[in-house]
Amino acid sequence: MHLPSHLHYSVDHEWADNLSGVARVGITDFAAEALGDIVFVELPGEGTAVMAGEPCGEIESTKSVSELYAPVTGTVVAVNPEVVADPGLLNADPYTAGWLYAVEITAGPRLLTAEAYRELCEPS
Amino acid sequence: MYPALRRTPLHALHQSLGVRFTDFAGWSMPLRFSGETAEHNTVRSSAGIFDLSHMGQLAVDGPEAGRALDYALVGSISPLAVGAARYTMLCHDNGGILDDLVAYRLAPDRFLVVANASNTPVVLAALRDRLDGFRAQARWEHRVLLAVQGPHAERIVNCPDASALKYYQAVATELAGRPVLVARTGYTGEDGFEIFCEPADAAVLWSAFAPALPAGLASRDTLRLEAGMALHGNELHVGVSPFEARLGRLVDFTKPDFVGRTALLRRADQTPRTLLVGLTSTGRRAARAGYAIVDPSTGARIGTVTSGAPSPTLGRPIALGYLATAYAEIGTTVAVDIRGTAEPFTVTACRFYSRRDA
User: Fold this and answer.
1) Does any CB of chain B come closer than 8 Å to the CB of residue A78?
2) How many Cβ contacts (< 8 angstroms) between chains A and B?
3) Under an 8 A CB cutoff, do A40 and B285 touch?
4) Would an 8 Å CB–CB cutoff place A36 in contact with chain B?
5) How far apart are CA A66 and CA B99, in angstroms?
6) Which residue of A has its CA nearest to B218?
7) ipTM greater than 0.90
8) Pick among 3.40.50.300, 3.30.1360.120, 3.20.20.150, 3.40.50.1450: CATH of B6-53+143-226
9) Which CATH architecture best describes the domain A8-108?
10) To which CATH superfamily is domain B271-348 assigned?
């Protein structure tokens, strides 16, 4: 499992690249692998308020569909058009090209370090 | 404590390929190897190989085996020539579907009946019960079943006399020097072969078919769904008869007596209350098993989706489901409740994909 150490992780298998200001968010390698080949993402539009731990969209693979949870609380300020056009980016490159949307954070998020998140996914 | 999941003789080999396993019908089975979309597309364009050793293989032997199966199943089995196979069903006395099966005649007094994994104990018990009084016995065999499916399957399997082996025929032969039963059957909508072999020979044969891409149950499910093939547990269960499932042609009423005949005859004469239909959408959200089908004007529930996925070949959502007969005409617009939003779908035939040469 690939987990960049500079990112912050949620128990719902999302990541955020900042704890304050504007953060890009996405889903983890672990989540993408569990879903299989992702074919469709529905993301919150710009200006939407999202709340940490609450559903804000959905993510669909050939095999299944699941809700997308926001890892942080704030307002959506940008959406990644490339990932909407090509959801396969979430499988190929979930931490860089596969970012989902950017949020202006309004409340201090509680997120995990890469090591803590790894422990959650692969209990030793 | 939960019972351990059963593993096929190829489990370690799959593991070495980096497979993701899934729990299926008490077995740990390959879900996907390289990725279900690539596996699906490769079966459509060249060939894929599946380990289907979880499927139940029941040997039915005896001088009256054919007649006994005529009584036990809805189809006519005794007229099959040696080397011929038939898609058939085991029905409850009330006409409900207990399982869908493929029956192969291997010798005048020997048949192979292939059942769904989760159902094999049910099928074996029912066969034993129904064979009582006939000179015939049923027993569970534990061989490996491989499927090589796709337009390149004939070249890859390289079966002697493959061109003489027609769809739904089987032959006992040797491949890679190992004794096998090769059948031209499958569950993908493509040309292909199913190869029954001894567990000790499975790895050699898997390697011999190496040009075929290893494929798992995830791609097998989307392949069969595109081909409009019903799945036991989804489209087929004891709550429906072959007539609702549009498989009434499998029931042979020319047989004077078979289990379920009276109830099935009654059902054949009535218009079913619900029918299995295909559904497609021009949107992107897929209808999934269990979702409600509703009247687009009133919102009243008119059916239930039994299988659904974004079709890799067609690039749009496809589904199968049971729909109130009044709505089941092809071209009717219905709606599927996709997590609280009614999305429009169009009723279609159950088959979404046919290969070009078929």
Assistant:
1) no
2) 40
3) yes
4) yes
5) 31
6) A63
7) no
8) 3.30.1360.120
9) Beta Barrel (2.40)
10) Aminomethyltransferase beta-barrel domains (2.40.30.110)
